[in-house]
């Protein structure tokens, strides 16, 4: 990818251009990622000047998205792991409840509208480790189930592909050339429809290992509303990726 930038008022907008020979659409597509990166998919034969002109036409739209991302980040304060903090699981908001019990090892359980963490002392490192373990365990169970369920509806998937969990700062998932699906365990904090979108997205890469028109056509067939779901996930990203 090639990096570019241009001035928009007092702000410098930076973007990266991806060119792929298999891209069928003869137009520039602009994506503002949840982490603030601006990615531009361009036809192989488009000149840098043509790409820049196309991006400048959308500068106002890009600026609005970058402002929204900045505002969400400003609200994402570091956790102190105190009772009352907000936690997420499967799209629902829970209150953290810290219970100190010197005679029990660290543990986590859902109780009504609370995510209760039990620990021998109030040590943020211990509390975070307990929550990490709980989320990873729930993620493995939920994501494996959704992977198998969605894979069963796709004609090009004969058996569910192998899956692994990996914490990623800016990605929800990936698909290796060998067909292994990697999913971010913090995805289990998001609503179920968002989980299904990410799983379907990666399974579509088993059919088209790119972001070509055929890839997006496959997404459209199996989840016509995926753009709306992706937008919802993008809006939640700062909260969901936070630990």
Molecular structure report:
Residues 27-235 form the YgjP-like metallopeptidase domain. This is SprT family zinc-dependent metalloprotease. Its EC number is 3.4.-.-. The protein has helices at residues 48-57, 59-75, 124-151, 192-204, 213-222, 226-240, and strands at 2-8, 11-19, 29-32, 38-42, 86-89, 92-100, 107-111, 114-119, 163-165, 173-175, 181-183. The chain has 243 residues and is an alpha/beta fold. The strands form three sheets. The chain has a four-stranded mixed β-sheet with strand order 1-2-4-3. A hairpin with a 5-residue loop joins strand 3 (29-32) and strand 4. Helix 3 (124-151) packs across helix 4 (192-204) and helix 4 (192-204) crosses helix 6 (226-240).
Descriptive tags:
243 residues, Zincin-like, 2 domains, four-stranded mixed beta sheet, 11 strands, globular
In short, what is this structure?
The protein is α/β, with parallel strands linked by helices. The protein folds into two domains: 2-75, no CATH class; 86-240, Zincin-like (2-Layer Sandwich), CATH 3.30.2010.
Radius of gyration: 21 Å
Chain oligomer state: single chain
Largest sheet: 4 strands, mixed
Q: CATH homologous superfamily of the largest domain? A: Metalloproteases ("zincins"), catalytic domain
CATH architecture of the largest domain: 2-Layer Sandwich
Order of helices and strands: EEEEHHEEEEHEEEHHH
């Amino acid at each position: 990818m090639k990096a570019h930038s241009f001035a928009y008022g007092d702000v410098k907008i930076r973007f990266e251009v991806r060119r792929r020979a298999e891209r069928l659409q003869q137009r520039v597509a602009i994506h503002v990622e949840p982490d603030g990166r601006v990615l531009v998919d361009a036809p192989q034969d488009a000149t840098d000047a043509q790409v820049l002109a196309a991006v400048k036409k959308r500068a106002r739209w890009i600026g609005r998205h970058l402002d929204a991302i900045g505002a969400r980040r400003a609200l994402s304060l570091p956790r102190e792991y105190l009772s009352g903090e907000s936690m997420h699981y499967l799209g629902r908001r829970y209150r953290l409840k810290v219970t100190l019990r010197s005679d029990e090892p660290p543990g986590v359980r859902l109780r009504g509208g609370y995510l209760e963490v039990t620990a021998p002392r109030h040590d943020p490192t211990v509390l975070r480790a307990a929550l990490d373990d709980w989320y990873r365990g729930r993620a493995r169970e939920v994501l494996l189930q959704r992977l198998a369920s969605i894979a069963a509806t796709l004609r090009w998937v004969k058996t569910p592909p192998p899956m692994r969990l990996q914490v990623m700062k800016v990605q929800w998932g990936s698909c290796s050339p060998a067909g292994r699906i990697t999913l971010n365990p913090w995805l289990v904090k998001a609503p179920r429809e968002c989980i299904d979108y990410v799983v379907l997205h990666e399974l579509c890469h088993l059919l088209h290992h790119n972001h070509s028109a055929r890839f997006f056509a496959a997404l459209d067939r199996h989840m016509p509303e995926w753009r709306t779901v992706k937008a919802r996930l993008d809006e939640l990203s700062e909260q969901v990726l936070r630990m």
